[in-house]
Structure formats: structure tokens, C-alpha cells
Design brief:
- Two copies of one chain form a homodimer.
- Chain A is of the alpha/beta class and 326 residues long.
- Chain A is globular and about 50 Å long.
- Chain A starts with a strand and ends with a helix.
- The longest helix of chain A has 17 residues.
- In chain A, the strands form two sheets. Chain A has a ten-stranded mixed sheet, sandwiched between helices.
- The mean pLDDT of chain A is 96.
- Chain A has two domains: 173 residues, 3-Layer(aba) Sandwich (Isopropylmalate Dehydrogenase); 131 residues, Isopropylmalate Dehydrogenase (3-Layer(aba) Sandwich).
- Chains A and B meet through helix 4, strand 6, strand 7, helix 6 and helix 7 of A and helix 4, strand 6, strand 7, helix 6 and helix 7 of B.
- Strand 7 of chain A pairs antiparallel with strand 7 of chain B.
- The structure holds 3-isopropylmalic acid (IPM) (2 copies).
- One 3-isopropylmalic acid (IPM) sits at the interface of chains B and A.
- Chains A, B: Keywords: Oxidoreductase.
- Chains A, B: Pfam families: Iso_dh.
- Chains A, B: One of its GO terms (molecular function) is isocitrate dehydrogenase (NAD+) activity.
Chain lengths: 326, 326
Amino acid sequence: MTHEIVVIPGDGIGQEVTPAAVDVLEALDLEFEFVEADAGDAVAEETGEPLPQETYDLAAGADATLFGAVGETAADVILPLREAVESFVNIRPAKAYPGVDALRPETDLVFLRENTEGVYSGHEDRLSQDVSTLTRVVTESASRDLAEFACDYVAGDGHDGFTIAHKANVMRETDGLFRDTVAEVAEENGVETDEVLMDAFATHVCLDPTQFDVVVCPNLAGDVLSDLAAGLVGGLGLLPSANVGPERALFEPVHGSAPDIAGEGVANPAATIISAAMMLEHLGYDDEADAVHEAVETTLEEGPHTPDLGGDASTADVTEVVIDRL
Amino acid sequence: MTHEIVVIPGDGIGQEVTPAAVDVLEALDLEFEFVEADAGDAVAEETGEPLPQETYDLAAGADATLFGAVGETAADVILPLREAVESFVNIRPAKAYPGVDALRPETDLVFLRENTEGVYSGHEDRLSQDVSTLTRVVTESASRDLAEFACDYVAGDGHDGFTIAHKANVMRETDGLFRDTVAEVAEENGVETDEVLMDAFATHVCLDPTQFDVVVCPNLAGDVLSDLAAGLVGGLGLLPSANVGPERALFEPVHGSAPDIAGEGVANPAATIISAAMMLEHLGYDDEADAVHEAVETTLEEGPHTPDLGGDASTADVTEVVIDRL
Ligand SMILES: CC(C)[C@H](C(=O)O)[C@@H](O)C(=O)O
Ligand SMILES: CC(C)[C@H](C(=O)O)[C@@H](O)C(=O)O
């Protein structure tokens, strides 16, 4: 069965790391049909529109989308694209790799971030000169979808359960509904959970990240706490992510378009290649996914390394070695 | 001039560290009149009310309030008390001390957290079985008050300016108003600012905390990011804070009531004593404030240490030595 994969390189180093990940996928000789699409600052400058309707429609119709990075217009591109693939969960592994400097080398976490609502549902008003408001939305149904996904996730991957991170001591109704629904679904499924306030999580994950494993949280909490975990493993450079919906999904490195090094051909392709491995897993190619994960891990451990990791290899050098190691 | 100081020990170790800080204040022989008041889980169990009206009124009328810690009912106590003193800013220094293990010993940050609104203004609704909402409020006036305070703060303390941390790429109207107002006030006052997204801050502060100095942020961002900084300096145990209003203020350690060690007389009083030093500064006793800061810092560096810092001294031992060093 042929899979249609939409590829959206975007801006800056997105134009370098995305083709690198496609090269790795092509080396696997699977039946993928790649369709390239535009989005980001460059398109916005030409057309006034950072996310062309055509790109949106392609993502909304494809089996999977591989996304690179976008500059200033990131929110205008990535939020609608998450919607296009009807993604209800953003999977964000944050794992330290041997061979890469990390503040907490023992970090090995996975965030399952609610991906449709919270402050991102985005209803804002300017009520008067002085007063602005934002309506934060939390629904039982979205919390339930996330929780069911989380239960499958921890069952499939041999985890002990998951931690619910929230701020229900202040957001009693909304985060209270989130916490209670997620805990209830877990109980129905025989999955163990514990809970932690998101502020306490921020302290404790620094003191000892091994206290946590899979962390389920509302949208903004997931955004901030997973970026915090990125700081513990040595930066955003290595973090992959998956935006998963019922039928489609979009895969993207957590890093941005890095305009400071764009065009030099030295961007680290690891996060995008690992995102591509998550895509392989999602499409059912488990062996191929494992092979890519292993090839990247070996390369992180043994080199060659791009300059961000202290080496002097190019994006192409690293990609070639990863492909050789498949 | 006699100052009336309301003292609210609260629950757990609050009952141990608050009297310790009062002992230090009394040793200074200033004209303070201490009035003790109740709040917390224990009172709630007796009376059904975690924050007695009398306590609220005392805090609302006193020059300053020294607060210990409260257990499960923390939000029901501390949020109204911040309101009682009309606090518009929560000052949260996060500094690593020589002699104390820290993940990032070079950390020396001060968070100026908006203290009245954001998600804390707390209007929540359950619109239907499925849907709950919270109205997040950001006003120009509260943003302006915070910004004016921040400008004075950085001028008085010889900082270069401050960083505005926000999430205006998603919360465009509300955090946009916050960011724009704060930046505008800073410009009017000739204070330099830069800005950073709160998620990016979470990564970057781990990678290099010396990039930042004074960080001005909305309420929940300040809650989470300052707790993150606590993780970098070795935990909440040493962090003081001040809730400052136009006429009154409330000082509290950032840590909680620590039921696991309560009653043993070994709680670390440092955070509460440093909070008392912030109170002295606030009341205009700059020399005494410096003396207390120095006495605590020397004690953190040279001991004696309570068990949380690897020692076997009691709360009383540490307090006595701090007093001797004044
Ligand atoms: C670009 C921005 C809207 C986005 C988010 O807040 O989700 C980004 O920070 C991320 O985490 O992918
Ligand atoms: C107890 C809670 C309501 C409070 C807050 O969220 O402000 C606490 O976390 C703090 O930071 O003082």
C-alpha cells in the first residue's frame, strides 16, 4: 500500500533538515509518495498568507505529514496544521542521548500534550481600553480522547502508568475537569496514575527527572513543561514530536527555523530524522522505525556531529552516515 | 515608629520556621509589634474556614505580614491574603548559594510576577456536561502597575533592564496587551527590555541561566517559571518571596508545609528568614536587612545545616547561629 506523505520544509534550517529526513525515508525503499508543500515566512512574504489553502488541504488529506520549521509565522502555520490533521495529542519525547551533553543525562520522559484546546482554543476579546480576556476551554470529550490515547500508549510501551500534571488548585473547574476525566479513564482501563501540580513538576523534574516517565497534561502546560525537559537534555536540537489524530498525523522537530545558521548546511538533522522514525512507527513500519532510531542513536554517540554538538560535520555528512547505518 | 507585623505560621513546618524568623526579627530590637493569626488546614478542620475573617482583616490592616506555609488549603488562604494586602507584584528571587548543591550554581534571577489576574482572576464556568471555561483577564492597568514597579526595581538595584516572558504568539490579545504595555512603560522610563516566549525561556534558563536577570511575567508564567528556577538552585527550600501592594505587603517562603518532616524541629528556616529580610528592606530597614541576608548566607555556606542540606542541625540550632552572626 502506497502512503502519501506531505513534506513541508518551511523556513530556515527546515529547508535543510527536512530533505535530510526524506533521504533517510527514501533509503528504506518503502512505498511512499512524497508531495512537497509550502508554508512559512517566505510564502507569507510572497503571497501574504503563511499557510496556503493548498498546503492545508494536502495535510488534511495525506496519511502523514513531515514538517520542518517555520520562522515568525510559526503559530499561524503549525496551529492550523495540527487542526488539519485533527490532532488531539502531541507526543513529545524528551530523552537524553549518550554522547550529547545534558544537564540531566538520566532524563527519559514522554509528554502527551492535549492538542486542541486550553488557551489555544483562542477566543480572545478586548472588552475595553483597559481589559482583555481569553476564554480557556477544557472539555470532557477532549480530555477523554487524550486519556484513552495515554492508556494505550503506556500499555503498548511497558510503562507503569502516567502522571497527570495540571494546575487544578487554581483552575478548579477547567483543570479539575481535565484531571478528573483523565484519572477516571485511567481507572476504567486499569492504568495507574499519579498527579502533580505543574509548578511543582517544574521544580521536581529538575531535581530528579527519573521520578517521572509519561506525563499527560493540558495544552500550554505541555508546551512549557516539555520545553523545560528539552533544557534538561541539552536543548531543543534533538527533540522530535508527533501530532496525532484519529486518521492522520503530522511529525515535526521541536526546534525552530534557526535563522542564525540557516543556509550553511550544518543544521543538525537528528530531531527531524527521529520525527520521521515516529512517523514510520505510526504507519506500522515498526522494524524500519527501530532501525532509524538506532542509526540516529549510534550517530549521536559515535559521530559525526554537527557544530551544535561540538563537531564539524555537515547536515549531509550526518545524514549519509545515518543512512549507511540503517 | 512602631510597625504592626501580622504573623501567620499556618500548618506543618510553618509552625516551626515562622517563629524562627520572628526570633531573628526580635533580636534586631526594632519597634515591631507582632500579632499572631491563624490560617490553614488545622483551622479549617476546626471551623470549616481555612482563612478566618479576623486573619484577613489583620493582614489588610497591618504594615506587613509574615506568612509561613499552609497545607491542602493553600490556594484558599494565600490567594485571598494576596488580595488583602492589595498585592500587585510577587517578587521571587531565585539565587543559588555557595555551600548548597545546585544544578546550576550560577543562577541568580529575580521574577517579578503579576499578582492579581491572568488565570488567577478565576472566573470559571461549567457551560455543559462537556464544556468548562475559564476567563483569563489581562488589563492594561495591572500590566502598567507591574511595569512601573519593575522599572523602579531595576533602577534601584543596578540591573541592566529586564526580560518580559510571555506567550503572546498564542495569547495574542491578552499577553500581547501585557507585553506591549510593559515594554511601553519601560521605554517611557528609559529602561531596556527584551522579550522571550515562556516556553523558550524554560529551555534557555536550563541551558544558561546567566542569560537572564530580572524576569517580568504574567501570573501563571511567574508561578511556573520561578518554580523551575527553584529546581536549578536546589529546590524550594531556600526561596523567599514578597507580595507587595501599594501600602501593605506579605512575605512568605516559597516552600509548602512539608507534612513529612513537620513536628520534628528540623525544618530549614532559611527561606522564611530571608523573607523576613525582604520585609525589613520593604519597611526601610536596609542595614538590618543586609545584616540578616549576610548572616543567613554565611550560615548556608559554613553551617550548621538542617537535614535537607545534608546536616543534622535543628531549626533552633540554625536560628541561634544566624542570630549570633547578626
Ligand atoms: C509556535 C507555537 C504556536 C507552538 C506552540 O505553542 O504549540 C510551539 O511553541 C510548539 O510547542 O510547537
Ligand atoms: C498555592 C498556590 C495557589 C500558589 C500559586 O499558584 O500562586 C503557589 O503555587 C505559589 O506559587 O505561591
